[in-house]
Design brief:
The structure is a single chain. This protein has 15 helices and 18 strands. It has helices at 24-38, 55-69, 82-91, 124-134, 155-164, 191-197, 224-233, 260-274, 289-297, 309-319, 342-356, 360-363, 381-385, 392-405, 431-452, and strands at 13-16, 46-50, 74-79, 96-100, 109-115, 149-151, 177-181, 201-205, 237-241, 248-252, 257-258, 281-284, 302-305, 323-325, 331-333, 372-378, 409-415, 421-428. Helix 8 (260-274) crosses helix 11 (342-356) and helix 14 runs antiparallel to helix 15.
Length: 453
């Protein structure tokens, strides 16, 4: 990013509902500022989608009012996955798309994500322009020029057809039994239909949102319930999405979890085998060492970037490649869509299964996953932004951990881009050693944070 942001983080704007910036008055001003920067009555409308959080109603109305006051027309999509809003923004020839969601966070958080007219994340310069506009006093257009709002009734059907079209014609899921966990989130009304219409028998889980249960002990962050359902129903595969539908975690027929790195490896190796992989694969600093080694053994180039799908996208564009992702389940297939999409990513894995006739348990064995331990250490926002990780206590702890790994693993400490946390990651061949080093490093970060406080 080119300058320090007041509101925009690595994935839009996010926070606790009722606390700045997630307040009604801010959402109103944000709608107006975004309307002034992104839209005009001579251009297309601005689309608004949301996940299933109870606060979505509140922020949808506030954004709508702000956009209208700037003279911009609005199309309301209702509960729709984040990648669906990206897709529909393109197909509606809209000026922009806005998603009201806090992704995998609990219901009491919410946020705003923006897409440009091309269905991509906003460039830095546009986010900076919106922030600058927020500092100006609101000035409503004349009543004759106010924007109008309409609801889009066929949005789910449009997106379902798009998803089905991301695998080759004739590909069928007949004979497959799938457990699909929608995390009581934005995919609850579309994901089961996608897989059913392609011929699979679907056992839906997490499809009863009540405004409060989004991501609550379900979905991609908590695949344990889905795992039990896979074993109970003797399903071929479990598919877990997060609250806004851009993350994917799988479970194979034996109940073993398959994360984003493993799914990315399956897709990359299959495309490489078929001669359709353009260039290499972009991962992040958190990508498992096993992914890098499996791709390297196949002669596939691999690049690491900072954590966040924003940086994966930047890396893909810089390299001219099409495939990248994160271990958390964000997978980007630029030859299929413009952003991370959990349903589309699942379909790419299912296509490999269908084409090869091999079960998921066999496919993911192509990558030997290194033991990895992640510890989230709560810190104050000031400590996270300060030089906490450069202090003597933390630096010495990192040196000791790296010495213990003796070149056969990795250590990574980084502030979260969305929460007041420091994420401590240790990776290596010995799980016991990895766990001990991660705990020691987390303790060092806590001591350093207490000293700062």
């Amino acid at each position: 990013m080119t300058q320090e942001r007041r509101y925009f983080g690595t994935d839009g704007i996010r926070g606790r509902v009722g606390e700045p910036p997630m307040t009604v008055d801010f959402a109103l001003r944000l709608g107006w500022a975004a309307g002034r920067v992104l839209g005009s009555r001579d251009g297309g409308p601005v689309l608004i989608g949301k996940d299933t959080r109870v606060s979505g109603y509140l922020f949808e109305s506030a954004l709508e009012a702000g956009l209208s006051s700037a003279g911009v027309d609005i199309r309301l999509l209702g509960p729709m996955p984040t990648p669906a809003v990206a897709y529909l923004t393109r197909t509606f020839r809209a000026s922009a798309g806005i998603v009201i969601s806090a992704s995998h966070n609990p219901y009491y958080d919410n946020g705003f994500k923006f897409f440009s007219s091309t269905g991509s994340k906003l460039p830095d310069a546009v986010e900076e322009a919106i922030e600058a506009m927020l500092e100006r006093p609101m000035a409503m257009v004349d009543s004759a020029d106010l924007g109008k709002a309409e609801r889009v009734g066929d949005a789910p059907g449009r997106y379902i057809e798009f998803c089905k079209g991301t695998i080759p014609p004739g590909t069928t899921l007949h004979g497959l039994k799938l457990v699909v966990d929608c995390a009581h989130g934005a995919t609850y009304g579309v994901a089961p239909h996608v897989f059913e219409e392609l011929g699979a028998e679907v056992i839906p889980v997490g499809v009863e949102p009540d405004g409060f249960n989004i991501n609550d002990d379900c979905g991609s962050l908590h695949p344990e319930h889905m795992r039990r359902a896979v074993l109970e129903h003797r399903a071929d595969l479990g598919i877990a999405l997060d609250g806004d539908g851009d993350r994917l975690i799988l479970v194979d027929e034996r109940g073993d979890t398959v994360d984003g790195d493993q799914a990315l490896c399956i897709i990359a190796l299959a495309r490489h085998h078929d001669g359709i992989l353009q260039g290499g694969v972009v991962g992040t600093l958190m990508s498992n060492l096993g992914l890098e080694q499996a791709l390297g053994a196949a002669g596939i180039p691999f690049r690491r970037v900072k954590v966040g799908d924003r940086y994966v996208m930047e890396g893909l564009k810089r390299e001219g490649w099409q495939l990248g992702g994160e271990s958390s389940g964000h997978i980007i297939c630029l030859d299929r869509t413009t952003t991370g999409d959990g349903i589309v990513s699942a379909l790419q894995v299912l296509q490999v299964m269908s084409h090869s006739g091999r079960p998921l348990s066999e496919l993911h064995r192509a990558m030997e996953k290194y033991p990895q331990k992640l510890v989230n250490v709560p810190v104050t926002a000031d400590a996270a932004r300060g030089g906490l990780l450069e202090g003597r206590v933390v630096r010495e702890a990192v040196q000791e951990a790296e010495s213990a790994l003796a070149g056969r693993g990795r250590v990574l400490l980084r502030p979260s881009g969305t929460e007041p946390l420091v994420r401590v990651m240790v990776e290596g061949g010995d799980m016991a050693l990895v766990g001990r080093l991660a705990r020691d490093l987390a303790d060092a970060v806590r001591r350093a944070a207490e000293a700062v406080a």
